Amino acid sequence: MMIIFLHGFPFNKSAWDGQINRLSSSYKVQAIDLRGHGKAPSPPGPWMIPDFAEDIKNYIEGQKLKKVVLCGLSMGGYIALHFAATYPQYLSGLILCNTRADADSNETKDKRYESIKDIRNNGIENFAEEFSRKALGETSLNEKPELQKQVKEMILQNSPSNICMTLGALASRRDSTSYLSKINCPTLVLTGSEDRIVPPEVTESMSQKIPGAHFHKIPGAGHLSNLENPSIFDQNLMQFLLAIKI
Ligand code: MLT
Looking at the whole model, is its pTM more than 0.90? Predict the structure, then answer.
Protein backbone atom coordinates (compact mmCIF):
# COMPACT_ATOMS: atom_id res chain seq x y z
CA MET A 1 0.00 0.00 0.00
CA MET A 2 1.38 3.37 -0.98
CA ILE A 3 1.09 6.46 1.21
CA ILE A 4 1.02 9.62 -0.92
CA PHE A 5 1.83 12.98 0.67
CA LEU A 6 0.40 16.24 -0.71
CA HIS A 7 2.11 19.48 0.33
CA GLY A 8 0.48 22.78 1.24
CA PHE A 9 0.51 26.11 -0.60
CA PRO A 10 2.99 27.38 -1.79
CA PHE A 11 5.54 24.71 -1.04
CA ASN A 12 6.73 21.55 -2.77
CA LYS A 13 7.18 17.89 -2.00
CA SER A 14 10.38 18.54 -0.05
CA ALA A 15 8.12 19.72 2.80
CA TRP A 16 7.60 16.00 3.46
CA ASP A 17 11.27 14.93 3.29
CA GLY A 18 11.38 14.15 7.02
CA GLN A 19 8.32 11.89 6.93
CA ILE A 20 9.52 10.18 3.73
CA ASN A 21 12.93 9.46 5.30
CA ARG A 22 11.54 8.19 8.56
CA LEU A 23 8.68 6.10 7.16
CA SER A 24 10.35 4.61 4.11
CA SER A 25 11.88 1.66 5.98
CA SER A 26 8.40 0.48 7.06
CA TYR A 27 6.07 1.74 4.30
CA LYS A 28 5.93 2.58 0.62
CA VAL A 29 5.82 6.37 0.62
CA GLN A 30 5.87 9.09 -2.00
CA ALA A 31 5.46 12.85 -1.90
CA ILE A 32 4.17 14.56 -5.02
CA ASP A 33 4.80 18.06 -6.38
CA LEU A 34 1.38 19.54 -7.10
CA ARG A 35 0.82 21.32 -10.44
CA GLY A 36 2.75 24.59 -10.64
CA HIS A 37 4.91 23.67 -7.63
CA GLY A 38 8.38 22.12 -7.41
CA LYS A 39 9.16 20.21 -10.59
CA ALA A 40 5.55 19.52 -11.57
CA PRO A 41 4.24 20.82 -14.91
CA SER A 42 2.30 24.10 -15.02
CA PRO A 43 -0.56 23.51 -17.46
CA PRO A 44 -2.44 26.55 -18.76
CA GLY A 45 -4.82 28.04 -16.19
CA PRO A 46 -7.17 28.76 -14.67
CA TRP A 47 -6.63 26.01 -12.08
CA MET A 48 -9.27 24.76 -9.71
CA ILE A 49 -9.06 22.30 -6.82
CA PRO A 50 -10.78 19.53 -8.88
CA ASP A 51 -7.89 19.85 -11.40
CA PHE A 52 -5.38 19.13 -8.64
CA ALA A 53 -7.47 16.16 -7.46
CA GLU A 54 -7.67 14.83 -11.02
CA ASP A 55 -3.87 15.11 -11.30
CA ILE A 56 -3.59 12.80 -8.28
CA LYS A 57 -6.07 10.35 -9.79
CA ASN A 58 -4.06 10.34 -13.04
CA TYR A 59 -0.88 9.80 -11.07
CA ILE A 60 -2.36 6.83 -9.19
CA GLU A 61 -3.65 5.28 -12.41
CA GLY A 62 -0.34 5.99 -14.17
CA GLN A 63 1.53 4.17 -11.39
CA LYS A 64 -1.02 1.32 -11.57
CA LEU A 65 -1.77 1.63 -7.86
CA LYS A 66 -5.06 0.12 -6.73
CA LYS A 67 -5.58 1.93 -3.45
CA VAL A 68 -3.55 4.49 -1.53
CA VAL A 69 -3.49 6.34 1.76
CA LEU A 70 -3.59 10.06 1.00
CA CYS A 71 -2.04 12.50 3.45
CA GLY A 72 -2.57 16.19 2.66
CA LEU A 73 -1.63 19.30 4.60
CA SER A 74 -3.73 22.46 4.24
CA MET A 75 -4.14 22.91 0.46
CA GLY A 76 -3.04 19.28 0.19
CA GLY A 77 -5.96 18.56 2.54
CA TYR A 78 -8.44 20.53 0.38
CA ILE A 79 -7.29 18.40 -2.54
CA ALA A 80 -7.41 15.14 -0.54
CA LEU A 81 -10.94 15.97 0.59
CA HIS A 82 -12.07 16.63 -2.96
CA PHE A 83 -10.33 13.42 -4.02
CA ALA A 84 -12.15 11.47 -1.27
CA ALA A 85 -15.49 12.74 -2.54
CA THR A 86 -14.74 12.16 -6.21
CA TYR A 87 -12.57 9.04 -6.33
CA PRO A 88 -13.33 7.12 -3.09
CA GLN A 89 -12.56 3.81 -4.80
CA TYR A 90 -8.83 4.61 -4.64
CA LEU A 91 -8.67 5.34 -0.92
CA SER A 92 -7.83 3.00 1.92
CA GLY A 93 -7.05 5.78 4.36
CA LEU A 94 -7.07 9.54 4.65
CA ILE A 95 -4.90 11.86 6.72
CA LEU A 96 -5.98 15.50 6.80
CA CYS A 97 -3.55 17.95 8.42
CA ASN A 98 -4.02 21.63 9.32
CA THR A 99 -6.92 21.93 6.94
CA ARG A 100 -10.60 22.80 6.75
CA ALA A 101 -13.66 21.78 4.74
CA ASP A 102 -15.41 25.13 4.37
CA ALA A 103 -14.77 27.63 1.58
CA ASP A 104 -13.01 30.99 1.93
CA SER A 105 -14.94 33.76 3.68
CA ASN A 106 -15.29 37.02 1.73
CA GLU A 107 -12.59 38.49 3.95
CA THR A 108 -10.17 35.68 3.03
CA LYS A 109 -11.05 36.05 -0.66
CA ASP A 110 -10.25 39.77 -0.39
CA LYS A 111 -6.90 38.94 1.22
CA ARG A 112 -6.11 36.49 -1.59
CA TYR A 113 -6.81 39.24 -4.12
CA GLU A 114 -4.59 41.68 -2.19
CA SER A 115 -1.80 39.08 -2.29
CA ILE A 116 -2.28 38.59 -6.04
CA LYS A 117 -2.05 42.36 -6.62
CA ASP A 118 0.99 42.69 -4.36
CA ILE A 119 2.80 39.80 -6.10
CA ARG A 120 1.97 41.21 -9.54
CA ASN A 121 3.37 44.61 -8.58
CA ASN A 122 6.24 43.70 -6.27
CA GLY A 123 7.16 40.05 -6.81
CA ILE A 124 7.11 37.38 -4.11
CA GLU A 125 9.76 38.50 -1.60
CA ASN A 126 7.31 40.28 0.76
CA PHE A 127 4.72 37.57 0.37
CA ALA A 128 7.31 34.87 1.16
CA GLU A 129 8.52 36.71 4.26
CA GLU A 130 5.01 37.29 5.63
CA PHE A 131 3.64 33.88 4.76
CA SER A 132 6.63 32.02 6.24
CA ARG A 133 6.11 33.89 9.52
CA LYS A 134 2.36 33.39 9.61
CA ALA A 135 2.65 29.69 8.79
CA LEU A 136 4.86 28.93 11.77
CA GLY A 137 3.65 28.91 15.35
CA GLU A 138 5.12 31.14 18.08
CA THR A 139 7.17 28.24 19.46
CA SER A 140 8.89 27.61 16.12
CA LEU A 141 9.43 31.33 15.47
CA ASN A 142 11.10 31.68 18.87
CA GLU A 143 13.00 28.43 19.00
CA LYS A 144 13.73 27.49 15.37
CA PRO A 145 14.55 30.63 13.36
CA GLU A 146 16.30 28.47 10.74
CA LEU A 147 12.95 26.79 9.98
CA GLN A 148 11.45 30.15 8.98
CA LYS A 149 14.34 30.68 6.53
CA GLN A 150 13.88 27.18 5.13
CA VAL A 151 10.12 27.74 4.64
CA LYS A 152 10.73 31.13 3.01
CA GLU A 153 13.28 29.56 0.63
CA MET A 154 10.72 26.95 -0.36
CA ILE A 155 8.15 29.68 -1.13
CA LEU A 156 10.69 31.66 -3.19
CA GLN A 157 11.22 28.64 -5.45
CA ASN A 158 7.74 29.21 -6.92
CA SER A 159 7.10 31.50 -9.86
CA PRO A 160 4.94 34.56 -9.13
CA SER A 161 2.42 33.58 -11.78
CA ASN A 162 2.00 30.06 -10.39
CA ILE A 163 1.47 31.44 -6.89
CA CYS A 164 -1.21 33.79 -8.25
CA MET A 165 -2.85 31.00 -10.21
CA THR A 166 -2.96 28.81 -7.09
CA LEU A 167 -4.37 31.67 -5.00
CA GLY A 168 -7.23 31.77 -7.51
CA ALA A 169 -7.77 28.02 -7.08
CA LEU A 170 -7.83 28.36 -3.30
CA ALA A 171 -10.29 31.27 -3.37
CA SER A 172 -12.63 29.48 -5.75
CA ARG A 173 -12.77 26.16 -3.91
CA ARG A 174 -16.18 24.85 -2.92
CA ASP A 175 -17.46 24.27 0.59
CA SER A 176 -16.78 20.55 1.07
CA THR A 177 -18.57 20.16 4.43
CA SER A 178 -21.30 18.04 2.84
CA TYR A 179 -18.63 15.50 1.79
CA LEU A 180 -17.48 14.82 5.33
CA SER A 181 -20.24 12.48 6.51
CA LYS A 182 -19.76 10.35 3.38
CA ILE A 183 -16.08 9.57 3.96
CA ASN A 184 -15.96 5.84 4.50
CA CYS A 185 -12.27 5.07 4.92
CA PRO A 186 -10.27 5.30 8.16
CA THR A 187 -9.37 8.94 8.72
CA LEU A 188 -6.86 10.74 10.90
CA VAL A 189 -7.07 14.51 11.39
CA LEU A 190 -4.04 16.36 12.74
CA THR A 191 -3.43 20.00 13.47
CA GLY A 192 -1.07 22.27 15.37
CA SER A 193 -2.10 23.91 18.65
CA GLU A 194 -0.63 27.21 17.37
CA ASP A 195 -1.99 27.20 13.81
CA ARG A 196 -2.86 30.81 12.85
CA ILE A 197 -3.95 30.05 9.28
CA VAL A 198 -6.52 27.36 10.01
CA PRO A 199 -7.51 27.66 13.68
CA PRO A 200 -7.29 24.29 15.50
CA GLU A 201 -10.98 24.48 16.53
CA VAL A 202 -11.98 24.65 12.85
CA THR A 203 -9.99 21.53 12.03
CA GLU A 204 -11.34 19.77 15.12
CA SER A 205 -14.93 20.53 14.22
CA MET A 206 -14.29 19.23 10.69
CA SER A 207 -12.97 15.98 12.18
CA GLN A 208 -16.15 15.57 14.24
CA LYS A 209 -18.19 15.40 11.03
CA ILE A 210 -16.14 12.52 9.58
CA PRO A 211 -17.45 9.12 10.73
CA GLY A 212 -14.96 7.48 13.13
CA ALA A 213 -12.18 10.01 12.49
CA HIS A 214 -9.36 10.33 15.02
CA PHE A 215 -8.24 13.85 15.90
CA HIS A 216 -4.98 15.00 17.51
CA LYS A 217 -3.70 18.49 18.24
CA ILE A 218 0.08 18.66 18.05
CA PRO A 219 1.64 20.83 20.76
CA GLY A 220 4.18 23.53 19.92
CA ALA A 221 3.27 23.49 16.23
CA GLY A 222 1.59 26.00 13.95
CA HIS A 223 0.28 25.49 10.41
CA LEU A 224 3.23 23.32 9.31
CA SER A 225 2.83 20.70 12.03
CA ASN A 226 4.89 18.02 10.23
CA LEU A 227 7.90 20.35 10.08
CA GLU A 228 7.41 22.05 13.43
CA ASN A 229 6.95 19.06 15.72
CA PRO A 230 7.95 16.11 13.53
CA SER A 231 8.37 13.58 16.35
CA ILE A 232 4.80 13.95 17.66
CA PHE A 233 3.44 14.27 14.11
CA ASP A 234 5.16 11.03 13.04
CA GLN A 235 4.11 9.24 16.22
CA ASN A 236 0.44 9.98 15.44
CA LEU A 237 0.92 8.99 11.82
CA MET A 238 2.57 5.68 12.72
CA GLN A 239 -0.10 4.83 15.30
CA PHE A 240 -2.80 5.43 12.70
CA LEU A 241 -1.01 3.38 10.02
CA LEU A 242 -0.51 0.51 12.47
CA ALA A 243 -4.17 0.65 13.49
CA ILE A 244 -5.43 0.48 9.91
CA LYS A 245 -2.99 -2.38 9.20
CA ILE A 246 -1.77 -1.31 5.82
C1 MLT B 1 -1.71 26.10 2.73
O2 MLT B 1 -0.87 25.98 3.62
O3 MLT B 1 -1.87 25.22 1.87
C4 MLT B 1 -2.49 27.38 2.66
O5 MLT B 1 -2.27 28.12 3.81
C6 MLT B 1 -3.93 27.13 2.42
C7 MLT B 1 -4.74 28.38 2.44
O8 MLT B 1 -4.19 29.48 2.41
O9 MLT B 1 -5.98 28.26 2.46
Answer: yes
State pLDDT tens for residues 31-49.
999 999 999 999 999 999 9
Of 170, 172, 191, 203, the residue with max ligand 1 atoms within 8 A of its CB, to mutate for a pocket test, comes to 170
- The rounded distance, in Å, linking the Cα atoms of 159 and 196 is 25
pLDDT for 89-114, tens place per residue? 999 999 999 999 999 999 999 999 99
75 lines ligand 1 (CB under 6 A): yes
Nearest to 217 by CA among 190, 182, 243: 190
Measured in Å, residue 245 CA sits from the centre of ligand 1 at: 30
What is the b/e burial string over 44-69, where b = at least 16 CB atoms within 10 angstroms of the residue's CB?
ebebbbbbbbbbbeeebeeeeeeebb
Q: What is the pLDDT of residues 58-85, one digit of tens each?
A: 999 999 999 999 999 999 999 999 999 9
